[in-house]
């Protein structure tokens, strides 16, 4: 792209812009003389200036805005900064700050990014896709804004999520950024305060009926196949029922996945594999109870069941080990309000609307919160779990921070330091009776970028659950004995790029083994994949 661009247009094209790093020869040949200050800088000097400017921002939301403006002006420098210290930047670009960014998206909005398609665009979607300047789009992250983190329906404000998710494809797994496209599909919103906000940027109508949504989505999925060969659709933050419905409709027909269902399932299984190593137990012998039976709850339950089956259980035996509890109480066989995906987990049991009673009766060793309800794991809940096992696993996964079902401090204190704890966001280490306890961040950002890199590189035709299980195993296999001894469930975030590239190598190998690749198998999958990984350096 940079060869055709000149002058101001070149400076205003983020993907090609080098700013003050354009050499004198480039400035002469590209019509840039006089358009830049005289100094010619290396990217490291530009990086220093960005850090200074960032250091003056008082809050993470301000830092989020600054970084996204940096991305608007110089993509390479943005990734150079972000990839230099992922553990520091992930919470700014992603959970939890992205949640606050979405809440205020229409107010902090500066300039458009990605594509907006609305229910009024029926019959026009292919044309809209063709307006996108990059013709080789390889991954689309699409949301309806229907359930943004634990924050509910945020309508068009949900665009912050696909933007942030795709930035992590590059930052965490080195997927080249040019072929990544965030898409917001606007079906309206049922969020009254947004509809009444004069600065709201989405359609000012309540959500369209299901039938219209189905038709528009069919057209969208088909248009993507027609316009962008080999493009994978990553569905993100759709309402629970919609999430299952669309995954079931498209997963066997096109290359797609749902991160809330499959990515979350995979990272949880990765955490469970490591935790089983710490506790010297087998997953198939554990009982799991979920608070929350939506896309994340059922998605994780399905992935845990698949992992138990790999250890020798039958379908029924695996389902019998897993229980779910939602806003209407325990899922059991007399419940009439369940969707088909929940039914395998509705066992024979008396109805219950008391979580502590359900724990006392079911006796789970693992409690997983994906309910969107902050502090739902009360002292009585944690104490009930601590009565059942020596090392109860307490995963409080709802996002953002204040939606976590309990804090590490609560889980550790109420279990007398015995809990193995994880949350969707990163909490700091906690001191308890002279020991340092390390809460894990169980977030699907360890998984979906790696899956994305493998799919991108292999031009995979489908995304399967087996790939997510392989990603879970690969992630868990990278936790060292020493890290496990410290109670860590995942490899450190400081090394996230190397972790995810290693995971992607395993997933890509599986894609070749299953004949799902659209390119021929290279002799050395690892060397071939590493050569594809994006590096935030200016091209000569
Ligand atoms: P969802 O809206 O599909 O499901 C929410 C579930 O919680 C429903 O089953 C609902 O009945 C239940 N629930 C609501 N209030 C409840 C209450 N008072 N008591 C018991 N159950 C209650 O949402 P989804 O997609 O399943 O996500 C849930 C949460 O998980 C969100 O906060 C999301 O941010 C988080 N999540 C975290 C991920 C991570 O990587 N850590 C990944 C995906 C989701």
Bound small molecules, by name, code or SMILES, are: 1,4-dihydronicotinamide adenine dinucleotide
Quote the distance from N terminus to C terminus.
Answer: 13 Å
Strand order of the largest sheet: 8-7-6-9-10-11-14
The total beta strand count reads 14
Mean pLDDT: 96
Q: Determine Rg (CA atoms, Å).
A: 23 Å
Query: DSSP helix count?
Result: 24
What's the gist of this structure?
The protein has 540 residues and is of the alpha/beta class. The chain contains 24 helices and 14 strands. The strands form 3 sheets. A 7-stranded mixed sheet has the order 8-7-6-9-10-11-14, sandwiched between helices.
Descriptive notes:
By secondary structure, the chain is α/β, with parallel strands linked by helices. The protein is built from 24 helices and 14 strands. The strands form 3 sheets. Strands 8-7-6-9-10-11-14 form a 7-stranded mixed beta sheet, sandwiched between helices. Strand 9, helix 18 and strand 10 form a beta-alpha-beta unit. Helix 4 packs across helix 7, helix 10 packs across helix 20 and helix 14 packs parallel to helix 21. The protein is globular. The model has no long low-confidence stretch (mean pLDDT 96). Bound molecules: 1,4-dihydronicotinamide adenine dinucleotide (NAI).
């Amino acid at each position: 792209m940079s060869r055709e661009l000149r002058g101001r247009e070149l400076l205003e094209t983020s993907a090609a812009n080098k700013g003050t790093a354009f050499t004198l020869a480039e400035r002469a040949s590209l019509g840039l003389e006089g358009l830049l200050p005289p100094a010619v800088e290396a990217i490291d000097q530009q990086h220093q200036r960005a850090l200074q400017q960032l250091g003056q921002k008082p809050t993470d939301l301000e830092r989020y805005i600054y970084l996204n403006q940096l991305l608007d002006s110089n993509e390479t420098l943005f990734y150079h900064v972000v990839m230099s210290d992922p553990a520091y930047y992930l919470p700014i670009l992603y959970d939890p700050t992205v949640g606050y960014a979405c809440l205020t998206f229409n107010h902090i909005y500066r300039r458009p990014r990605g594509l907006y398609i609305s229910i009024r665009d029926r019959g026009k979607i292919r044309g809209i896709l063709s307006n996108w300047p990059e013709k080789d789009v390889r991954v689309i992250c699409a949301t309806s804004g229907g359930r943004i983190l634990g924050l509910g329906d945020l309508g068009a404000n949900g665009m912050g999520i696909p933007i942030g998710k795709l930035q992590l494809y590059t930052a965490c797994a080195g997927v080249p950024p040019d072929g990544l496209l965030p898409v917001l599909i606007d079906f309206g919103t049922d969020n009254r305060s947004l509809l009444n906000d004069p600065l709201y940027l989405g359609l000012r109508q309540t959500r369209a009926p299901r039938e219209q949504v189905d038709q528009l989505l069919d057209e969208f999925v088909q248009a993507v196949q027609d316009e962008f060969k080999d493009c994978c659709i990553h569905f993100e933050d759709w309402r629970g029922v919609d999430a299952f419905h669309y995954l079931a409709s498209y997963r066997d027909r096109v290359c797609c996945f749902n991160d809330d269902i499959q990515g979350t399932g995979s990272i949880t299984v990765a955490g469970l594999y490591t935790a089983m190593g710490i506790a010297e137990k087998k997953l198939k012998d554990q009982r799991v109870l979920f608070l929350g039976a939506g896309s994340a709850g059922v998605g994780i339950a399905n992935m845990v069941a698949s992992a138990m089956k790999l250890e020798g259980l039958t379908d029924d035996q695996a389902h019998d080990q897993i229980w779910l509890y939602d806003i209407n109480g325990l899922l059991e066989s007399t419940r009439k309000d369940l969707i088909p995906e929940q039914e395998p987990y509705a066992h024979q049991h008396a109805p219950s609307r008391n979580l502590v009673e359900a724990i006392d009766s079911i006796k789970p060793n693992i409690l997983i919160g994906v309910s969107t309800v902050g502090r739902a794991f009360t002292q009585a809940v944690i104490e009930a779990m601590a009565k059942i096992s020596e090392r109860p696993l307490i995963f409080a996964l709802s996002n953002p921070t204040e939606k976590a079902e309990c804090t590490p401090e609560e889980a550790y204190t109420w279990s007398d330091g015995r809990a193995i704890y994880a949350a969707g966001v990163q909490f700091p280490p906690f001191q308890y009776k002279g020991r340092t306890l390390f809460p894990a961040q169980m977030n699907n950002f360890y998984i979906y970028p790696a899956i994305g890199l493998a799919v991108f590189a292999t031009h995979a035709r489908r995304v399967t659950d087996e790939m997510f299980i392989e990603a879970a195993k690969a992630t868990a296999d990278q936790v060292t004995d020493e890290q496990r001894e410290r109670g860590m469930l995942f490899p450190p975030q400081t090394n996230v790029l190397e972790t995810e590239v290693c995971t992607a190598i395993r997933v890509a190998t599986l894609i070749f083994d299953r004949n799902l690749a659209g390119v021929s198998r290279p002799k050395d999958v690892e060397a071939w994949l590493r050569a594809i990984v994006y590096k935030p350096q200016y091209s000569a």
